[in-house]
Each structure stands twice: as structure tokens, then as C-alpha cells.
């Protein structure tokens, strides 16, 4: 929870309301309340969505090898089971971002939950390889809505410790990976991959179960000119947190025209002001989509940040999923080069044990990123973790035994998961509310390209007995990602969120 001293020490960095001013922004309202019980409930719901995405992604490490053996698939056909999910996520991340910016965050993650839960459950009954590919592709489209939940949660968090709370939110991904590894270990040997798909769809159904009580983002509502609805949610938040809102009229940092009482009472709140016919007119951003959305992201003010963010997302996704898949492919030790020995080993108990152990690497990654993200800033934290992950993978270029391989993969996963946590903190902060989820969704789509190419390129190289080339490829991608982070023009730590491009200047 935010302490009074922390709020006061950060308050000078807020846009001043000034003496005699009777307006406040969503940032002011969040700072006045701190992180309370209301935000905890929002965190729990968004976290369930993140668990859902993690379980659906992690199960690919187990389903692919089992389906390959059962249906006598080639290595290329096995890789496609993973790749089609990323193709779907590429489409979904961009599409759901536009939907949520135009029609609301709630609408965005409602449809993603419906698509993910429905297709995830149906894929357990896939009668053949082609139907499984099609259903996992649809699951990927639903999973592409993950950035919507991240942006939604971000917009409820006060700025002073926003980085820490966003990393805690990312911790639900860690919970999901450990849950899925445990589930696979318990379910796969006895019940098989179909039951694993059934159980893994449950978190998405829970999102639908509690959807009716989920609030819309007040920052989104305010940006759209629906200030009375935004104020209703902020008042409910204040009651739940047992806090008070700043006096006056709620406004967005998009241009406003105010017709108000120049001498409001200190106890005045927006409900009373609105009853007196106070007129608040916000400049509402027009709906965007397609080429116009991309054009905004590539505008002169944002093009550098956008392109560097795309490189960083690509590198993080390629490396993260590569390290996860390498844990499966190298689970028998790096001497197991022939594809037949890899296949026979990958469906054994060693796979479940190694993936389960490596999943716990995300716990120290989470703790480390939570500790440094606000202290060192987003840029330094991300670049350091990417370069250290690069260093952990370097010894694996030379053949090592299974224990050493597992240790180095563990260390690399600590750092790449920490970097991935922070990039999901940073990405929503560099875009304004008017197209925040479009920006994050587009960047996430580029990341999905990295995830899609990873099993087709890197893991295929391992199958083809080219482990050294595969690892050098990871080294190059990690290094270039770290360099991209260094050249980001903005450090967002401790800064309020902007509602429009003009307010970012």
C-alpha cells in the first residue's frame, strides 16, 4: 500500500492543480488514494487472465512432443503446433488493441476470454492434426488480448510505485507457468495431452464467470469524454479503499473547456458539481484502426520509441520462448543430438521435472525485476537483464553435461523473464491513453513474430544437430535487444500516464 510520505514526496512531480483550482485528473485521484483494496481486486482479475495466457503457452512444451509421438508427426509438423499459436496471437494482439481503444477495455478482454476458453476446450477433442492446428490458431487469436488486460490494470495503478505493481502483475505469469508444469507432471503420464488441454482452459472460463462485476478503466472513460461514468468508478474506488477524492471536477489532460463555479467549496465533489449543470467538454479522440492506427504509432513524436519497442519485444519473445523450448529439447543433455533420441526422451519424466524446475527460475526473475524496476529505472533494468541472459547462454555454445546445461538455462530464464516483465511495464507507459492498447498490442504482435519464428528456426537447428548455431542466434538477438533498450528516448519511471500525444511533450 502507498504510504502518506511516499505520496507527499512524489506529489511535486504531479501536474499542479494550484491554489483555487477546482479540477483534478485520474492521476491525481489515484495518487490521493494509493494502492488499496479496489486495486487488489483489479489485480486479481487481470492476474487470472495472465495465468490463463501462461498456461496456454506453457502447455506447448508438453503437447507438441506427445502429439508428435501419437500421430507420427515430423519435427516440422510438431513445430507448427507452436507456430500457429503465435500467428493467431500476432493477429489477435493487434486486433484486440484497436477494439479496446475504440470500444473499451472490458469489451476487449471479454471477447478474448470467450475465444480462448472456447477454442482451448474444443482443441482437447481435436480428431486429427489439421483440426488441432486450426483450433490452436484460434486460441492464439484469443491469447493476443493479453496486452489489453495489462493496460487495463496499469490504468488503475498510481504512478509512484507503478513499476513494482506491474511487475507483481507479471508474477501471475510465473504462477501460471509453475501451475502448468505441475499440472503436466500430474496429468500427462496418466491421462494424456487431451486432459491437459481441458484443465488448462479453466482460467479463461473464470474470467467469464466474474466479468459482470469488472469496472471499465476510468482513464479510458475520461479520455472518451464520459467523465460522469469515470467519476462513478473513482468514487466506488474511494469507498472501497476508505479514502477521499480531491475536491473539484474530474478532467482529462486532453484539451478541456470548463464552465464552472470559480469559488467551489473544499468539500465539493463531481456529483454535486454536475447537479449544478457544470459543463465539462472533453475533446474526444476519434476511433482509429488499420493504417491510421499504425500511422499514429509511427508519427514523428513516437516513431523512435515504437521501432525500438518492436525490436525489444521481438528479442524478448524470441529468446524467452526459445529458452523454454530449449529446456524441452535439451532435457536429455546436449549430447542427445539425433532427433530420435530427443523425441523418445522428451515424453519421459525428465521433461516434466526439468520444465518444472526451470519454471521456478521466473520467481527470482520476478523478485529481481520488482526490486530494481523503480530504483534503477526501466531502461537500465531491462538492458542489464538482457545482457546478463546473453552471458548465461554463452557457455552452452560448447557441449555441456545435463546438470550444467540446466543451471545455465535456469540463469538465462531468470534474466529473460525479468526483462519480459519490465518491457510489459514500459510499453504501456510510453503511449497515451487514446491508443495505448493499440500501441502495446502492435508491439506484442511483433513479439509474436519472434515467438512464431523461434520453434521454426532455433529449435529446428537443435533438432538438426546445429546447437552451436542456434545458441549463437540467441546471443545475437539478446545483444541487439539490449542495445535497442539503451537507445530508448524516454525513461518513464515515476512519471504520470499521458492521455494524448500533445500531453506527452
Automatic annotation (TrEMBL):
Keywords, ordered alphabetically: Membrane, Transmembrane, Transmembrane helix, Transport
One Pfam family in the UniProt entry: Sugar_tr
Compartments, record wording: Membrane
Claim: Transferase is one of the keywords in the record: no
Major facilitator superfamily (MFS) profile domain mapped to chain residues: 42-493
Membrane topology classification: Multi-pass membrane protein
GO cellular component: membrane
Molecular function as annotated in GO: transmembrane transporter activity
Keyword presence, Hydrolase: no
Signal peptide coordinates: none
Transmembrane segments: 40-60, 80-100, 107-126, 132-154, 166-187, 193-214, 307-326, 380-398, 404-427, 439-463, 469-490
InterPro entries, A to Z: MFS_dom (IPR020846), MFS_sugar_transport-like (IPR005828), MFS_trans_sf (IPR036259), Sugar_transporter_CS (IPR005829)
Coiled coil: none
Name by which UniProt lists this protein: Major facilitator superfamily (MFS) profile domain-containing protein
Organism: Dendrobium nobile
